[in-house]
Every structure is written in C-alpha cells, then in structure tokens.
Amino acid sequence: MNQKLFDYIKASPTPFHAVAHTKARLSAAGYSELSEGESWALEGGKGYFVTRNGSSLIAFRVPKGDFPGYMMTAAHCDSPAFKIKENAEIPDKYYVRLSVERYGGMLCSTWLDRPLSVAGRVAVRTEKGISVRLVDLKEPCAIIPNVAIHMNRNANENASYNAAVDMLPLFGTSEAAGSFKARVAAAAGVKPEDILTTDLIVYNPQEGYSWNGYISAPRLDDLQCAFGSLEAFLTAKEGGSAPVYCLFDNEEVGSQTKQGAASTFLADVLGRIGESLGLSAGEQRQKIAGSFLLSCDNAHAVHPNHPEFMDKNHAVYMNKGIVIKYNANQRYTSDAVSAAIFGLVCDEAGVPFQRYANRADMLGGSTLGNISNTQVSLNTVDIGLPQLAMHSAFETAGGADTEYFVRALTLFFEKSLIMDGDGEYRLV
Ligand code: ZN
To answer: Within its chain, how far is the Cα of 147 from the centroid?
Structure first.
C-alpha cells in the first residue's frame, strides 16, 4: 500500500497533477466525467466525477434505488510550495535565479540544499481560444543554497528566512538566461510564444521510501489522506448510501477560493445530484441531515525530541492508528456524536484509533471540515494520520497507518447512517 502511495505522490507534484491522476484512475474504473458547464443526466448504479479549476475534484456513485444519504470524505491536494511569479527569471552577470513567493506556510529550512523541480500548468493560445496544459519538468533543475556557516556564524542559533532574499532558487549560470520559458514550453509540448500565462511551483521531486516501520516522502500532508480515501472509495462495495469523494485545492491558504473547501463546489454538486434524480428540495435536505463527512487531514504525532508540545492526555503516535481531532473552538468539527459514529466504524473494521487535542496554551491548525460546513452543514468528524515535521519539504509518517486508514474508510463508504432523531443514529 505504501509503494502505491509513493507512486501517487510522485504523480502529484501539484493539485493539477493530483486531479489529473485521480481522473485517470476514475476513468479506468468506469466513472464518467461530468462538466459543470453542461446538464447532468445521472443513472442509478453508475459512478461520476467532476472537476473545478482542474485542481479540485468530486467523485460519487449513484445508488440504484432510493438512498438515505451521502457518505463523504474530503482531503486536500495542495501543499506548501514556492510559486513561480509570471516574470520568472532574475538574471545577473553570473546567475539566473527564479522569482518566487511562498504558497502556504512551509518550514523554509527544509527547502534548502535539496534538488528541486518545477511543475504546474500553462494556459496556451489555441485556434479556438485558450487551453490548459500540465507541465512537470521532473528532473532536478533548481536549488536554494544555504549561506555557508563561515559567513553566517549564528545560523544554528537564530535561523530566520526572508522569502524575498533567502529563498530564491538558483536556476542556472548566466548562460541559462532566457531558457526557463522555453524549457516549460517544451515540457508542455507547445511553442514558447503560445504560452499566455502560467501557474507553476517549485517542488521536491524526491521519491518516498519506507524505513524501520516509518515512511518518509514529500507532501504526506495531505496526499496520504487523499490517496487513502481514493483507494477506499474505489474499493468499497455498494452500501445503501451514495459515496462521495472530495479532493480540494487551496487548504494551505485558507480554502477561500472558487474551488476550495469554502466554495460552493460540494453544495453545487450535491444540489445537482438531487436535481438530476428528481429529488424535491425537502427530500434532498432529509438526505443531507442523514449524511456524514470525514474531513481527512494529517495530524501531529509526538515528536521524539520534543514531546513537550503534546497534550499529555491526548498524545498520538505513528503506527497506532487513525487520529480523531478535537478542538473546543471547533477548528476541528469532531463532537461527541460524530466521533462516536466514526469510532464505531473503526471498531467494526478492526482499526485502532487515537484521540488528539492541542495543548490548551497552543493554537493548532485549521482544516477542511469546519470550513466546508459553512456551505453544506452536516455531521462531520475531523480525522487524519499522525506524522512528523508537517509542512517540511520531506515529512515522516507511520508505515502501518495508510493501510489502517484505507480499511476503515472502505467500511465507512459501505455503511449508511440512519437518522432516528437529532443525536439518534444507526449505522447499517
Ligand atoms: Zn493538511
């Protein structure tokens, strides 16, 4: 399972690639692509998917008969990275550097002195209008060099990184001037003059590997959950409910984009499923009341050198199972009811789970569930897999946990939630 995860990560240097890869897998499994710009005629017993901006995707299966609700998962496919600005090259007498800005909150030090590559998409001029091409240079083609210790004697005591000065990738010698766009165009299979504009990032192309019970790879947050929930969605046998798989872009920058978890994308898709199946507005509301969302995003494992950052009663460890995340201020959506329901799924699947809460004096991160609930409100639990070094260019997680996650989520997709009253539920 972890080798499949590493292959997925390698194929997904950017959200555009993660979505393209997911589309290919869904198409191969017999799912039909829908467009938001066309009308939908859905049939029971069939599977579909739709994308927005090429960087978010929702897939679902329509049950053959009436169904109680939607069993949904959401994960994000973006990771902190350096976005390459439109005028990409900064040439001088000896060097060509790339003009970049931060996307999301990365640990800057981890991006230094490692081989980096470039991927994303370009918008190109066509005879009809514009078209988008994906680009992945794959080979290392840039590096962000540290300053030598001899010139920065305090580097180990007080490291600080100015994104506009310290984090500019070196692309080549002065002879490389003018070649960046040509290289991107060649990778896209178009002429440089046909590129109208770009969405490119610098990314870590290192492959993942397993070692001593752990896995280390770039972008485990959140591709481990994105991959695991896709595997579960594709593997699950038909239950009574409609399974829905969501992959969202832009979580690392707050989700407030047209395709992020704060957008209308999920609400629009659910609404259109209801319309196409001829459900009344009231029937659709009943289904959503009996639906369930797993908001899947990785969690912080106890750090071996810094266990003090963990709440002692809610410390979670790699290889000890799925994490249910709690937060009194509802940055995580888990509550007594939703956590209880998910705990029952894990018990039935024979998968261990752990409970996480931040130290009361530390602010944690936010994630998808509470944001998505502002558009479609339903029972939601925040879960994830424990990992180290979140937002590093190279992260570490538990070797056993991916399989636990897939097993529990596969069973989740096969279940239906029956609502007998507010707070009264049965999993069948
Ligand atoms: Zn995340």
So the answer is: 33
Burial class (CB in 10 A: 0-12, 13-18, 19+), 142: buried
Task: Yes or no: say if 317 and 353 are a contact pair by the CB < 8 Å rule.
Answer: no
Which neighbouring-strand residues pair with 58?
50, 246
Ordered alpha helix ranges (H), 119-264: 180-188, 220-235
Q: Residue ranges of the alpha helices (H) in 110-245?
A: 180-188, 220-235
**222 CA from centroid of ligand 1 (Å):** 5
**The two three-digit tokens of residue 422, written as one number:** 């507010």
| Residue 225: Cβ within 10 Å count | 30
Give distance in angstroms: CA of 117 to centre of ligand 1. 22
Q: Which residue has the tokens 């995580």?
A: 332
- Residue 75 CA to residue 334 CA, distance in Å, equals 16
Question: What is the Cα–Cα distance from 247 to 252, expressed in whole angstroms?
Answer: 13
Mean pLDDT of 129-136: 96
Residues 268-304 pLDDT 10s: 999 999 999 999 999 999 999 989 999 999 999 999 9
**Distance from residue 358's CA to the centre of ligand 1 (Å):** 16
The token pair that represents 286 in the structure block = 């009943």
> End-to-end distance of the chain based on CA atoms, in angstroms?
28
